[in-house]
Amino acid sequence: MTFKDNLRRFLKEPLVHFLIAGALVFWLMSGRPPDLGERRIVVNERVAGAIAQRFHDSFRRLPSQDELDGLIRDYVQDQVYYREALALGLDQNDEVVVRRMRRKMEGLAVADAEAATPSDKDLQALIDKDPARYAEDPRTTFQQVYLGADTPENRAQADIKLKQLRAGQSASGVPAPLPARLDGASASEISGMFGDEFTLSLRNQPTGQWLGPLASGLGLHLVRVDNRAAPAPPSLATVRQRVENDWRAAAVAKSRDESYARILKGYDVVIELEK
User: Fold this and answer.
1) Cα separation of 145 and 216, whole Å?
2) Antiparallel, parallel or unpaired: β 210-215 and 181-185
3) What is the 3-state secondary structure of 246-265?
4) Which of 174, 213, 249, 271 could be 158's S-S partner, Cβ–Cβ 3.0 to 4.6 Å?
5) Where are the domains of the chain?
6) Distance of CA 235 to the CA centre of its chain
7) Is the pLDDT of residue 12 over 60?
């Protein structure tokens, strides 16, 4: 039996009807007439069903009779206070209320866009428009000699050892838990070992010669980039989620802007500022 079937049977119980009626009596005892437009609060099967649905969404079960009674009392109390607050104008010039109502209106405007499913053609068009955004990182093969912490002494040693390396001689570094060579490493892999600053510096270095010193989170390095492989063109199969996220964000923004533009046409906006 589905949730709706259980809920429908639940709401047909005589005791539930009694509780709803009791909640209405409880409200009527406040002295408010029940038929004055906005002062009429109706708790029918639809309202009670929505209340029970919210409870079920939170707790994954239907409320008990006592729980539903309390939830209906809370609903009536919310409505009473809300309507009294509106009657007193407490919503006027309240930035929190204004912002919340704006978010609700924007939520209504973009609901369809958020639920829409793009076609493969739509997604491929985004990739074709900006392939660099979705391309994988270039793969870099390089060697490095670690010189230790970034100190004046080690920088002086860097100049000496750099000349040795450029002359084809060997130059030893300081022992460290770092590979002397990385083959075909991505930017994220390099950053994980050497840090973002080193990775950005490495990206701009020419290939085939010893350079440095380059700074990392550990200190100074002499580096030789042997090869930098250009990334393969992005394919929809590998970047679908990223592209779909971008497509939906653009669709939501467009829907929100178009909705606002339509509504704004119905208003006469006057900005009066003293110059």
Assistant:
1) 12
2) unpaired
3) HHHHHHHHHHHHHHHHHHHC
4) 213
5) 3-92, 137-229
6) 24
7) no
Give the type of residue at 242.
Answer: R
Rounded to a whole number, what is the largest CA-CA distance in the chain? 99
Question: pLDDT tens, 28-66?
Answer: 444 444 434 467 888 999 999 999 999 999 999 999 999
Mean pLDDT for the stretch of residues 205-222: 89
The amino acid present at 155, given as its one-letter code, is: R
pLDDT at residue 9, rounded to an integer: 60
Token pair listed for 203: 């990206």
What is the distance between the alpha carbons of residues 224 and 25, in angstroms, rounded to a whole number? 84
User: For the residues of 88-145, what is the DSSP string, one character each?
Assistant: TTTTTT-HHHHHHHHHHHHHHHHHHHHH----HHHHHHHHHH-HHHHSPPPEEEEEEE
So what's the pLDDT on residue 4? 56
Specify the CATH number of the domain 137-229.
Answer: 3.10.50.40
Give the C-alpha separation, 236 to 226, whole Å: 31
